[in-house]
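Think of the structure tokens as a kind of shorthand, similar to the way a musician reads notation: each symbol stands for something richer, in this case the local conformation of the backbone. In the example below we present two proteins back to back. Begin with the first one, reading the sequence and then the tokens, and try to describe in your own words what changes along the chain.
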Amino acid sequence: MSSMENMMKLAQIGLENGRDYSGIGTMKRIFGGSINEAFYVQTIDAEFFMKFHANSPKGFFRSEALGLRRIKETKTISVPNYLSYSDQPGNAFLMLTWIEGKKNDKTEEIFGHKLAKMHQCFGRMHGLQDDSYIGLLPQPNELNANWLEYYRDKRLKNQLDIGVEKGYIFGERQKQLESLLENLGKWIPSFVEPSHLHGDLYSGNWIVGPGGEPFIVDPSFLYGDRHFELAYTELFGGLPTKFYQAYQESYPLREDYEDIKPLYQLYYLLAHLNLFGESYGESIDVILDKYVGKLS
């Protein structure tokens, strides 16, 4: 764990890079998830949230900062502003505005409507021109007009390769995944609108700001099928019922959503397998049995 003295120095650099010269009044360590160290920083002028990672991979915080900017540019849903970031080895950080508020009876409904509006903002192609990350796992990207090709070759195949290398995917599971990739076009569409997607949206990656305004945080941005995003929101506990009702009112789901939902959840389950281990293996195997069946 990093020393507070070093973190204070780093925070001061981040603040000055973002043109806040007012000086740090308070700084304390807080919980910020399983990947980064996190800090509350209060200056004379404002409050901030700083993430730090001593061994982050190349371009890690740049990728998040660019994702926040792309979402902000849609002018649909709120995200924290970033003040500055650095990917210098050993001193990588991201300085964000502090977001705090209380949920009201409209917050969840507003969240659904605003995410639907973001999903109605489209890119030219699927994927992303820059490589990114899901957690700390590298996510190679490309821009591709064909969603099926991008999802199969850059998303699922990448997690398959990582899993084989880490020893989590072998034998029957590997055979089933390889067979699924060969036949994925039976379910996943090739040509759909490339929506702006948060890319890592589950119950832990939205927060409430002033006036009950919903904010989305920690993006792993891409352009893609919006149903990929919605499928992940349902995976680990799901989002509030009012959110889904409002989303459906604003931008109704395709009729094939329930058929393809497990195949979109598969990517995130594979990523969790590769990040955290075999506890996610059974859920993966259930999906493979459903769409591929036993091969041996």
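Once you have a description of the first chain, move to the second and do the same.
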Amino acid sequence: MFCAASMAVRLSAPRTWGCRGDLATGQSSRFGQPGQSAGRAVRATHTSYRSDRRPCLAAGNRKSLNAMPEVMFAGPDGRLEGRYHHSKETGAPLALILHPHPMHGGTMNNRIAYTMYQSFQKLGFSVMRFNFRGVGRSQGKYDGGFGEISDAAAALDWMQMVNPNSAGLWISGYSFGAFVGMQLLMRRPEISGWVSVAPPANHYDFGFLAPCPCGGLLLHGDNDDLVPEPAVRKLVDKLNTQKNVQVDYRVYAGADHVFATHAEHVGLAIEEHVGQILARKALALAAD
């Protein structure tokens, strides 16, 4: 098991704000906790933490990393539990996987979250999935989305500490995790790509994506009764009007919000989309 060394979460303020109570609309839903103030603002201050725990394994021991996928690292509200795959390739890109809503059974072992984890692993990434605060062995309690963004930033810091020379960084989230991922995208300029599966566009305000730093892959089902497809298409259309942003939007016939019979499609879409981008970058480097 890995225990993280002392370090600070880097969570800078986003370019713009557009979030209301519980980082959503302030209404009761499967994605937002009722009773939150609709006027509550996202914390824009830098979050920091210290830990006296030292690494149980040296961060430079790549063989040990490959053999020890379970990690515990310091988060803003206590230790966080994760699973980490370390690529055998030097300087491999990084991917962080974000699971669905903690208050509705979401964990890092969710089927779609695990599918995304496996897809990035196949592509040669060093990849982590982890439990938000209060889930599994992660300490703390649900914080309406505010603290969960800080948790994701802490996970990102841990990965960058272990991989100081990584070639790129991707964020991949499902449902609530997709929203947290897009929030993190606006705070961390080093993120070079993103994947969003079933983003809750009718429950959360995605207006903060202006301007969106880069394009990405967005997957949704036309049979999603929790997040109707037209709400997501409206978000995609807005993003595609922005300069230098192109969203690869794929809608799966018959897929519901949990992608009950479409998990394989999610994995294949990620491998195709991300694989093509990696191939183009490799060709550009070869041409130079």
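Compare your description with these statements about the second chain. The beta strands are 2-3, 70-75, 78-85, 94-98, 126-130, 169-174, 193-197, 216-221, 247-252.
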